[in-house]
Amino acid sequence: MTRKPFALSAYLAFARGRPATPMPPAPSRPEGPLLWAHADSAEAARALSALAVRMQSQRPEITLLLTHPPGMAVPAGAPDRIVLPLPVDSLANAQAFADHWGPDLGLWTGQLLAPALLARTSAIGTRMIHLGARNEIWTTPAPLWVPDCTGAALTLFDRIFAEDSAALRRLRRLGLSDSRLRSAGPLSETAPPLDCPPALHEELAQALSGRPVWLAAKIRADEASDILRAHRRATRLAHRLLLVLVPATAEDGVAIAGTASASDLRIASWESGDMPDENCQVLLTADAADLGLWYRLAPIVFLGGSLRAGHGGEDPLEAAAHGAALLYGPNVRRHLSAYTRLVDAGAARIVRDFDTLATAVSQLIAPDRAAAMAHAGWDVVSQGAALTDEVIALIFQWLDGDGGDGAGEAA
């Protein structure tokens, strides 16, 4: 039996004195492989849930157990996942967790570690992966008088995926060997492109050939007037410009249809069977059912739920995956990290109101500008997809009994 590092032993002695935390009754452990994923944020919870859905599409016998810090709101996800708050990191809680759940594999996010829990699950054979390690200080829930055990706790992970080279260097300074480290970019929610009927896409692409098109996607009712005003202004410089307006919900669609009909713009209704001719200025849809089609036809996309406070914005990676220059409003708290990455890459631009939206659309009508932003967005999405693919391949390899390389050192 390998001797534990002194710092980890000291932490475990401290954790032994912590009492078990009263927790609500846990559901029974499902049969079959159990994937335990710990999310340190709502964005990580969405990304981990999406990753699990990808895995379950190939291996439906896998169950996801998603844990999170107490008090964190967890976004809605697949109904068959189990969601629980993570208990205080004590030896009693760690033992109870390992005895009840016995996870086959574990995914961890965030710079705050739970050494007692990680040590106990490692001892029962759980293979652990850390995703999205950042160039930030690692912490544990221990008082200052307990020796720092972050380096020893990190050796409990079989594989650590770092966001960038700076995070990788920090991990090496903590004594981690290159055999367990990878530089793979940040963890992000990834999804395959939305469905689109090829024949319909080809028909519309031919009908719109030569016309500049922009898409306002998942628009809320209270944003519609600003979108239409921005389009009216943009058409002064590009009179053939077409706006495809896609409401977030059918309820929004009803209200938006009323706003559009009261404008002086020439409207066509997709659900009524109208095809956009040369006189059409706005193609109005009832809901987001055909969003995959519109993403493919429009090189410029404004993402709704962002101009007005209270909605939190929409996932920009979905649109970026289809190859579009992205515009968005200032209220995107639900997906702030993803928008920040896209802005830093030059793939997205913020607008504040209908005036700045009109200006941005007018500038991006130039094909080379929109293409440069779309390419930058595709690079960001591809990086996240590559990480997801590698993690899934590694998990399947371990589930199949192949230890692979980079197995964790005993701690």
Short summary:
InterPro entries: Glycos_transf_N, Glycos_transf_N_sf, Kdotransferase. By secondary structure, the chain is an alpha/beta fold.
Mind explaining what this structure looks like?
The chain has 411 residues and is of the alpha/beta class. It has 2 domains: 8-18 and 32-187, 3-Deoxy-D-manno-octulosonic-acid transferase, N-terminal domain (Rossmann fold), CATH 3.40.50.11720; 198-381, 3-Layer(aba) Sandwich (Rossmann fold), CATH 3.40.50.2000. Helix content is 39%, strand content 16%. It contains 14 helices and 14 strands. The chain has helices at residues 6-16, 42-58, 91-101, 115-123, 150-154, 165-173, 198-207, 224-234, 250-261, 291-297, 316-320, 336-344, 354-364, 367-399; strands spanning 34-38, 63-68, 82-85, 105-109, 127-133, 159-162, 181-183, 213-219, 242-247, 267-269, 282-284, 300-303, 325-328, 348-350. A 7-stranded parallel beta sheet has the order 3-2-1-4-5-6-7, with helices on both faces. Strands 10-11-9-8-12-13-14 form a 7-stranded parallel beta sheet, sandwiched between helices. Helix 12 links the parallel strand 13 and strand 14 (348-350). Helix 3 (91-101) packs parallel to helix 4 (115-123) and helix 8 crosses helix 13 (354-364). The chain is elongated. The termini are close together. Its EC number is 2.4.99.12. One of its GO terms (molecular function) is Kdo transferase activity. It catalyses: lipid IVA (E. coli) + CMP-3-deoxy-beta-D-manno-octulosonate = alpha-Kdo-(2->6)-lipid IVA (E. coli) + CMP + H(+).
